[in-house]
Amino acid sequence: MYIFQLKVGSYGYPWTKVFLTMPKHRNYSPLRPCVNHFSHCHPLRPIDQIKAEEELICSGCGLEVIGSTFMCSKSDCDFILHKSCFELNLVLQHKSHPPHSLKLLCAPPDNYSRNIFICHACHDYGTGFDYHCSTCQFDLHVGCAKLPKTINHKDHQHLLTLYYSFSCIKENIEAFVCDVCGQDVPDRLWVYHCKKCDFGIHLRCTIPDTVLKKDIQMVSTRP
C-alpha cells in the first residue's frame, strides 16, 4: 500500500492522506495520474511492467500483454491495453485505401453480423480494435495497419516488399501461391514479394520474421 499527502487546492484546504491499494506483483507508477481512453468508460492506470506468466489479454488487439500497459483503475474491471494500442492514431490515412481515411473503432461496427469484422489485409476475423472506412466497409486489424513496407525473411536472401494485392506485382498474373506454405492467396490479400526472384509469401507466413517479441501486438494478423 502507498500513502501520499496531496494538497487539494490552494485556498486553505488541509493536507489530505490518500491511500492507494495496488497489487504487489505489478509495477504500478503511483505518481503518474490515471488517463482516459475513448474505448473504455473508466480511467486507466499506467503500469510499467506486465510479466508473461500473468497471461493477460489486451482488450484492444486481443493478443497477450507483456511490458508497459494501461489497466482499468477499477478493481472489478479487467480492461487492459498495450501501451502501443493505447497510443494508436484515432484516424489513419493508409496507402492500401487511398480514397478515404480510416477511423479507429473500439469494436466492429454495429451493423456487422456476429460483432466481427474481416481484415482486408489478411482475411482473418477481428473482434476488437478496427481501422474502419464506413463508406467502403473496409477494415484492417491494427497490427496489419502497422506492417512494415519491407522485411527480411529466413527463407529468402533478399528484402521482401509489401504489396496490397498480387496484381500489383506484375500484369496478367492469374494466381499467387505462397512460397513458404504452398497455399493459394486471393488477389485482394496482401503479400510480401521479391520481384528479382519472384519469391512471395502471404501475411500468415511472415509474422515470426516481422516482429520483435516486445512489439508483437503491433503486427500480428490474428486478433
TrEMBL record:
SUPFAM superfamilies: Cysteine-rich domain (SSF57889). The keyword Repeat applies. Keywords: Repeat. It comes from the Eukaryota. The keyword Transcription regulation does not apply. Residues 38-85, 95-145, 155-205 form the DC1 domain. Pfam families: C1_2 (PF03107). Coiled coil: none annotated. This is Uncharacterized protein LOC18612048. It comes from Theobroma cacao (Cacao).
